[in-house]
């Protein structure tokens, strides 16, 4: 038995790394126990001899740790956090038995008190000596088992309540435990984006409910059902059923088509591929594979043996040694083998580890585990500096502070992996990456994100040992609280997949459980939310924590809703009037006859009249309008002036013609989110555009390094030497002064920033790109490169500038202190020491070079910091008026003594417990921010989208009030509002920011009430306060203002504003945006327009209309919207006229035949009149236009008229009712007078006049003729004439071919048509419509 255990020549066992003199043979202590237990597990021994070999040597320190900490530290902190780990391994079942005497909460508490007693006697706990007996070791084995979260699902050690959690779906209201790289114990929602309005199950019920909620359709349903009752039946049943089915089929078909389109586009987004790390745990048969792997890694093993100071949360030096040895066991037996697989976005699950690269969209909410720069991956992969080793027994016993643990891990443990992962360039090993969040919150600044120090230093193969505890899903995009924990390694002495022969076999890593304290906090800085985009040239490994509907962006998005146009509601109300007219007419006709004189039941007669007059409410109206919408949508998508336009909701194109409020996002919608340095002012002269060439020449002179005679010593320029270098004999004194000023300000801008250069390969060439949190800073650094000074290197200790002209380094500085930009301070500063090239490589001599303090910031704060001057305020105002974002640049030289004094005071302030920030600010203000030399002012422009200014101006002239809602900063929003001409030149902008008290809010409202011509600029915090306490009062004032700019708005705030304006004003709202943060706003609006953004299509997918440029919006509204609305209004009224006129004829006929409810036109005549004889000409009105596109753009005031709804109003409706009554009365009355009261002759005359009357009325209404209209009119006329011979069942065919028929038709037609047309001409002459005025007709 013993021979199978003792194999001293097994070099790859992790225990060979331990101190051999401290190893203890288990049989020396108790041979009986060992052999007994080992023998009882012979089957397991045969399966895995190598694992059994590991159990033979027990380092003394382990036994000591077991005695001291086995009771308490084993499971510290794991009771609740790690229960579900690796439950599926049945090999663990019954492996170790619990000792009821110690396995309780008291045990944990007791153990904690002994945490630091490293001087305690060997194998002693709480002062009692233990005998190395069988019982003692059995009990020790019990204590040293791995914690419950590693127990099998069927094992006795699983907490009873965990089985319930496994069976249930995850409760979104509770926090979650995410096991990295493995399957989760609870179900989470799938990571699929869905903008669809219906599911296959809900489609029919929801659409039918929506359709029949319209009185219109319900009326026809009742009429159709009434035909199932024999006494009420008039003509064919199909006459009433088929049109209703046809209308519903068209409407449902359109909804289905739109929703299938949405699903198809969602499917594209959900099918985007992402690289996922797949972690395969070695199975039972993998012993040889790992054995081979270890041989391959023998070189690393040598290093690992020396590398013993990896300290995850040290509790003592003994434990430190143990943890380090365990940590380095990674080298010998990785916890998993890692493969890269491609997985679709929809298939990503909570716990998946993603590998993301530059410009990749983040598909779900993730926690960043590790980030490494691509350009350093290859160079650092092969090299590794082993850490210094110290003997366990020599190292002084001391415990570091708890909160230094994370730092220790970061500094002590940088690893490389098979994936090519490298530590960050960051000295601390903390991986940095930048993300763009403009699609999420609208902010233009890049955000710095970090991997946790605990995970950054970890090899990816060890990620399976991580567990993330995250809070419940939340919509707050700027908050996150969580922890990440590194679980003990389960391989070296114990593997849940590979059972052991003895309870003591896992004793080697018993103290690893004490690393339960090995956790690190997670904050918002360690996360990247869905729809953000990685901006830096780095590879990021991140674990998915929230998916699908639980991501921040999804929670900030409201559900899609079915939108119904205002025109639909207006027509619905008109049909109610028509229905009332029908009912009145039916009752009046029965009453005229006399209720007592009615044959049969009088109410049956009324019902028959109602069915007869059902044509008054024309069912074909819905058919015509729905087909019209499809035509308008087709026009929009085929418009060559709007390439890429997509109509996603084809039921509301008329709404585009009724917009009164436009709510626009800023970032990516009005602006391109690309900064460009446009202007620089140095006090006496300003440079912009072509004048920048002069700056280039100054820089070329000023940074031309003299060729040194000593080749080994490079000449570097400092601010003092700059003046000399640039002096030319020919230049005038003034020119020399200006030249030196320009050089100073360019040098200041090239140094005072937080930008890091990175090298990227583009088209086979290496190019320098920059990364920083602020795009403004990148724009300035790019500008300094353009004028001749390139930043080539930057780390925490220094930076190097090269001359673009010569390609040689000209400036090298050591960074002594950086003061980052804050939203409160509104400035950033840096203290640097200029090197002149004479220093040796490793020297750090504070007296070796000039020390300068540079600072740049907003003019509001820098005005009091820089020395007195007479031009700063004026120039910053000028730039602000142009919409440029201004930065004031200053500098100050410091002596070595001054710097040392400052540094001492600053350090003292930085370690203060109370008032630390204020104290540090005070020191900076006292020593640095006084009388800075003012160097210049820069103006950076946030590039606007193409033609934004003229577009906004045109929309304002069209009577549309424009609000800008953005998540960006107040200053940024103000600049864009001015540069985009959202705010007129010279217009007063009233700013409400950081409002916290109600009485102050009331003051602002009172001011606005007296100045309604000013623009309002308000931040999200103040907006929330006003909407909470002064909701109606605020919105009542805000809607009167010409422009409102709301910044720092959350996505839900944007949606709330849209809903509030809609409900308060009852006007039509259009929202336009391009990011995921705009989706809620777009869906809340009456019309949502999405712009296809650079990074994401969330907004365009969720929108009703999708365009590619903001300037296309003007064409969408002013041209297509106006046409759609006017055409639909005309079409609706014409269809109503068509139904009403035939109802009047029926009434006249019923009166003439003694109030009998018999049909005048029955069966085919009725169906034919509503379809083939009038449909095409009436529908051709959708091609009509009153003005051409140029005039519509030239006179946007034409659009303004539509908002009153005058094209389809009660007034126009009743005009058409009177025309219908007149024409119907004339046609039917004269037909009966000139022929018979009843009979085929009268039917032939009246029906023919009726059809010709409709064709002529269509011709009178057309403003601009289209070839299709002519074809429709002539084609329908010929079709009717051609079909007359086949209507012998209804007409007297012999009479039709006589002149008597012709003159009667012509006479009646003339009397019917001439008066209405004459009235139209007179009204046009007296009060011409606007479109005729602009056409000068």
From TrEMBL:
Active site (UniProt): 665
Record field: compositional bias (Acidic residues): 16-28
Topological category with respect to the lipid bilayer: Multi-pass membrane protein
Taxonomic source organism: Hyaloscypha variabilis (strain UAMH 11265 / GT02V1 / F)
InterPro entries: ATPase_P-typ_cyto_dom_N (IPR023299), ATPase_P-typ_P_site (IPR018303), ATPase_P-typ_TM_dom_sf (IPR023298), ATPase_P-typ_transduc_dom_A_sf (IPR008250), HAD-like_sf (IPR036412), HAD_sf (IPR023214), P-type_ATPase_IV (IPR006539), P-type_ATPase_N (IPR032631)
Annotated Pfam families: PhoLip_ATPase_C (PF16212), PhoLip_ATPase_N (PF16209)
Residue spans crossing the bilayer: 1135-1155, 1161-1183, 1208-1230, 1267-1287, 1293-1314
Annotated Basic and acidic residues bias: 81-93
Binding-site residues, Mg(2+): 665, 667, 1074, 1078
Official protein name in the record: Phospholipid-transporting ATPase
UniProt keyword terms in alphabetical order: ATP-binding, Lipid transport, Magnesium, Membrane, Metal-binding, Nucleotide-binding, Translocase, Transmembrane, Transmembrane helix, Transport
Biological processes annotated in GO: endocytosis; phospholipid translocation; retrograde vesicle-mediated transport, Golgi to endoplasmic reticulum
Catalytic activity: ATP + H2O + phospholipidSide 1 = ADP + phosphate + phospholipidSide 2; a 1,2-diacyl-sn-glycero-3-phosphoethanolamine(out) + ATP + H2O = a 1,2-diacyl-sn-glycero-3-phosphoethanolamine(in) + ADP + phosphate + H(+)
Binding of ATP, residues: 665-667, 777, 821, 856, 885, 966-968, 1048, 1054, 1077-1078
Compartmental location: Endosome membrane; Membrane
Enzyme class name: translocase
GO molecular function: ATP binding; ATP hydrolysis activity; ATPase-coupled intramembrane lipid transporter activity; magnesium ion binding
Residue ranges constituting the P-type ATPase C-terminal domain according to the UniProt record: 1101-1328
Cellular component per GO, a single term: plasma membrane
Record's keyword annotation contains Cell membrane: no
Compositional bias of kind Basic residues: 292-308
């Amino acid at each position: 038995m013993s021979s199978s255990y003792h194999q001293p020549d097994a070099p790859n066992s992790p225990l060979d790394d331990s101190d051999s003199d401290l190893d203890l043979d288990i049989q020396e202590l108790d041979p009986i126990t060992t052999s007994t237990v080992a023998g009882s597990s012979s089957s397991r021994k045969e399966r895995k001899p190598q694992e059994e070999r590991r159990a033979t040597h027990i380092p003394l320190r382990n036994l000591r740790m077991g005695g001291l900490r086995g009771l308490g530290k084993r499971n510290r902190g794991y009771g609740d956090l790690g229960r579900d780990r690796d439950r599926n391994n049945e090999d663990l079942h019954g492996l170790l038995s619990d000792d009821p005497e110690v396995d309780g909460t008291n045990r944990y508490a007791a153990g904690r008190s002994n945490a630091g007693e490293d001087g305690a006697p060997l194998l002693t706990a709480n002062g009692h000596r233990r005998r190395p007996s069988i019982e003692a070791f059995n009990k020790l084995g019990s204590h040293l088992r791995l914690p419950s979260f590693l127990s099998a699902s069927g094992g006795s050690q699983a907490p009873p309540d965990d089985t319930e959690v496994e069976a249930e779906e995850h409760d979104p209201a509770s926090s979650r435990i995410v096991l990295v790289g493995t399957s989760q114990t609870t179900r989470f929602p799938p990571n699929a984006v869905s903008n669809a309005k219906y599911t296959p199950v809900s489609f029919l019920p929801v659409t039918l409910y929506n359709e029949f909620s319209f009185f219109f359709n319900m009326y026809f349903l009742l009429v159709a059902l009434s035909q199932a009752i024999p006494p009420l039946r008039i003509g064919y049943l199909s006459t009433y059923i088929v049109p209703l089915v046809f209308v519903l089929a068209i409407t449902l078909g359109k909804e289905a088509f739109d929703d299938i389109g949405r699903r198809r586009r969602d499917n594209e987004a959900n099918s985007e591929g992402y690289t996922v790390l797949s972690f395969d745990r070695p199975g039972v048969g993998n012993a040889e594979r790992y054995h081979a792997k270890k041989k391959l890694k023998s070189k690393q093993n040598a290093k690992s043996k020396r590398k013993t100071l990896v300290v995850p949360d040290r509790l003592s030096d003994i434990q430190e040694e143990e943890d380090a040895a365990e940590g380095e066991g990674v080298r010998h037996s990785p916890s998993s083998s890692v493969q890269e697989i491609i997985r679709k976005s929809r298939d990503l699950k909570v716990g998946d580890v993603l590998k993301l690269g530059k410009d990749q969209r983040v598909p779900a909410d993730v926690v960043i585990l590790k980030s490494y720069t691509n350009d350093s991956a290859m160079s650092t992969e092969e090299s590794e500096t082993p850490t210094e080793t110290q003997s366990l027994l020599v190292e002084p016993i001391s415990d570091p502070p708890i909160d230094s643990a994370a730092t220790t891990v970061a500094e002590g443990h940088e690893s490389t992996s098979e994936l090519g992962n490298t530590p960050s360039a960051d000295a601390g090993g903390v991986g940095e990456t930048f993300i763009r969040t403009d699609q999420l919150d609208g902010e233009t600044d890049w955000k710095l994100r970090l991997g946790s120090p605990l995970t950054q230093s970890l090899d990816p193969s060890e990620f399976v040992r991580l567990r993330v505890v995250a809070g419940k899903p939340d919509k707050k995009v700027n908050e996150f609280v969580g922890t990440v924990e590194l679980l003990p390694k389960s391989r070296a002495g114990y593997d849940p997949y590979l059972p052991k022969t003895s309870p003591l076999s896992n004793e080697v890593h018993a103290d690893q459980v004490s690393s339960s304290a090995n956790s690190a906090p997670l904050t918002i800085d360690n996360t990247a939310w869905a729809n953000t985009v990685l901006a830096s040239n780095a590879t990021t490994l991140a674990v998915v924590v929230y998916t699908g509907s639980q991501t921040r962006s999804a929670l900030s998005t409201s559900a899609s809703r079915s939108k119904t146009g205002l025109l639909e509601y207006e027509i619905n109300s008109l049909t109610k009037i028509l229905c009332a007219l029908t009912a009145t007419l039916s009752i009046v006709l029965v009453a005229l006859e006399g209720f007592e004189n009615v044959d049969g039941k009088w109410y049956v007669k009324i019902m028959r009249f109602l069915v007869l007059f059902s044509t008054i409410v024309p069912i074909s109206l819905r058919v015509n309008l729905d087909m019209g919408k499809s035509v308008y949508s087709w026009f929009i998508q085929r418009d060559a002036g709007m390439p890429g336009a997509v109509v996603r909701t084809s039921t509301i194109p008329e709404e585009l013609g009724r917009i009164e409020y436009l709510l626009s996002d800023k970032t990516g919608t009005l602006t391109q989110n690309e900064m460009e340095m446009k202007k620089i002012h140095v006090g006496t002269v300003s440079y912009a555009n072509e004048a920048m060439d002069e700056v280039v020449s100054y820089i070329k002179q000023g940074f031309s390094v003299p060729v040194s005679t000593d080749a080994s010593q490079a000449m570097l320029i400092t601010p003092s030497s700059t003046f000399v270098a640039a002096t030319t004999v020919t230049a005038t004194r003034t020119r020399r002064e200006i030249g030196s000023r320009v050089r100073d300000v360019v040098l200041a801008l090239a140094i005072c920033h937080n930008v890091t250069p990175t090298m990227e390969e583009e088209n086979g060439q290496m190019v320098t790109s920059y990364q920083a949190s602020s795009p403004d800073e990148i724009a300035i650094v790019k500008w300094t490169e353009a004028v001749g000074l390139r930043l080539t290197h930057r780390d925490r200790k220094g930076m190097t500038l090269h001359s673009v002209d010569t390609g040689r380094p000209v400036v090298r500085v050591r960074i002594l202190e950086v003061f980052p930009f804050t939203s409160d301070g509104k400035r950033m500063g840096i203290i640097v020491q200029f090197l002149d090239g004479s220093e040796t490589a490793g020297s750090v001599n504070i007296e070796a070079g000039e020390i300068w303090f540079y600072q740049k910031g907003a003019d509001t704060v820098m005005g009091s910091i820089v020395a007195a001057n007479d031009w700063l305020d004026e120039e910053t105002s000028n730039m602000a008026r142009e919409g440029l974002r201004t930065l004031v640049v200053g500098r100050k030289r410091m002596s070595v003594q001054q710097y040392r004094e400052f540094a001492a005071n600053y350090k003292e302030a930085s370690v203060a417990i109370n008032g630390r920030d204020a104290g540090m600010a005070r020191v900076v203000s006292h020593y640095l921010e006084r009388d800075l030399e003012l160097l210049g002012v820069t103006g950076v422009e946030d590039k606007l989208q193409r033609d934004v200014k003229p577009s906004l101006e045109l929309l304002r002239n069209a009577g549309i009030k424009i609000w800008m809602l953005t998540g960006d900063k107040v200053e940024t929003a103000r600049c864009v509002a001015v540069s985009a001409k959202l705010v007129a030149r010279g217009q007063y902008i009233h700013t409400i920011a950081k409002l916290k008290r109600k009485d102050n809010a009331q003051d602002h409202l009172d001011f606005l009430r007296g100045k309604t011509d000013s623009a309002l600029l308000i931040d999200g915090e103040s907006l929330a306060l006003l909407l909470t306490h002064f909701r109606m009062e605020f919105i009542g004032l805000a809607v009167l203002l010409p422009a409102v700019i709301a910044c720092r708005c959350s996505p839900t705030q944007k949606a709330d504003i849209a809903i509030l304006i809609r409900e308060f004003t009852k006007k039509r709202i259009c929202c336009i945006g391009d990011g995921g943060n705009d989706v809620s706003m777009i869906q809340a609006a009456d019309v949502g327009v999405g712009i296809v953004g650079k990074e994401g299509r969330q907004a365009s997918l969720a929108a009703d209309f999708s365009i590619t440029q903001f300037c296309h919006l003007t064409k969408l509204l002013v041209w297509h919207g106006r046409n759609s609305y006017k055409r639909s209004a005309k079409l609706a009224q014409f269809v109503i006229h068509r139904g009403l006129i035939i109802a009047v004829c029926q009434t006249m006929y019923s009166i003439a035949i003694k109030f009998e409810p018999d049909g005048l036109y029955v069966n085919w005549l009725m169906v034919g009149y509503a379809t083939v004889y009038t449909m095409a000409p009436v529908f051709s009105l959708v091609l009509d236009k009153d003005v051409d596109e140029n005039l519509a753009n030239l006179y946007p005031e034409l659009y303004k008229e539509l908002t009153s709804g005058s094209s389809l109003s009660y007034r126009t409706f009743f005009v058409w009712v009177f025309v219908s009554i007149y024409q119907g009365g004339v046609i039917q009355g004269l037909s009966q007078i000139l022929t018979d009261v009843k009979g085929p002759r009268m039917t032939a005359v009246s029906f023919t006049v009726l059809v010709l009357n409709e064709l002529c009325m269509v011709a009178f209404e057309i403003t601009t003729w289209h070839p299709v209209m002519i074809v429709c009119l002539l084609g329908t006329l010929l079709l009717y004439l051609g079909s007359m011979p086949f209507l012998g069942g209804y007409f007297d065919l012999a009479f039709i071919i006589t002149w008597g028929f012709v003159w009667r038709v012509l006479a009646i037609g003339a009397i019917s048509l001439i008066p209405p047309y004459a009235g139209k001409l007179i009204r046009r002459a007296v009060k011409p419509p606007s479109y005729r005025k602009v056409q000068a007709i």
